[in-house]
Model the fold of this input.
Amino acid sequence: MTVQELVDRLGLDPVALPHPEYEVTSGYVGDMPSWVMGNATEGCAWVTILNNRNIAAVAVLIEMACVIVTEGAGVSEEVAQVAMEQEVNLLCTEKSSFDTVARMAEFL
Amino acid sequence: MSELVKLHYDVDGNDFAAAGEASMKIKKELRNLGFPQDIIRRIAIAVYEGEINMVIHADGGTADVSVGLDEIDITLADKGPGIPDVEKAMQKGWSTASEEVRSAGFGAGMGLPNMKKNTDEMEIETEVGVGTTIHMKVYVA
Ligand SMILES: Nc1ncnc2c1ncn2[C@@H]1O[C@H](COP(=O)(O)OP(=O)(O)OP(=O)(O)O)[C@@H](O)[C@H]1O
Ligand SMILES: [Mg+2]
Done:
């Protein structure tokens, strides 16, 4: 499934979507960068409530398909800007991490 | 060992939310040099964790990478507070991170274990009140 398809099916708000064609091959949930760095896999959709600009670095380094900021945590203008610059697909939703993952599990 | 490329980066200690710039640049360089994805990923993780540690625990530092034919050497150096008990610091879950840093998601005590796991050699030189230098090697041959 592509990131664009994920956006459409889950009704995510695309804050930055430079690569809608990226393939989502797995998922990871976590709100501590060191856990994510140690366990997330390349091509994953990362579901988190973290919303500072560090999420862009993590996404770049792991080569994630996208980051989904849940629970209405949202991101600032600055973080959206960094995501564009670093070519990170950054999506937001009001839904909880649980609901987001539950929906994703239907497709992944 | 003959060196092909040397990279040097200063890591700013002021903004932990912005940390990761040196690791992202190093990752791009290694990709341009054509290293396998797995090697790049391991180095990216190790440098990122070291970079973050220098920002949140040591007020910044420097990252040096020297790319050789059969190994990549990484040196992270800071003039921070040093690590009083390295054995403890290496344990998963051990952290002295402040409340502020924890509210940004850091402080799981997983950084140093991640660095160890993703490199072939890792050595910590540290002295309380003087600073910390971490040497890591990843074999590429
Ligand atoms: N460069 C450093 N200077 C001083 N102390 C350090 C440095 N790096 C690590 N430490 C000490 O070692 C502890 C463990 O580091 P580690 O990276 O494993 O965990 P953490 O940084 O606390 O949390 P996490 O990396 O999971 O966000 C730190 O809490 C800190 O006390
Ligand atoms: Mg750390």
User: Anything to note?
Assistant: Residues 41 and 51 of chain B are 15 Å apart (CA to CA). Helices of chain B lie at 21-32, 37-58, 86-89, 99-102, 111-118. Chain B touches chain A at residues 16-21, 23-24, 27, 37, 41, 44-45, 48-49, 52, 104-111, 113-114, 117 (CB under 8 Å).
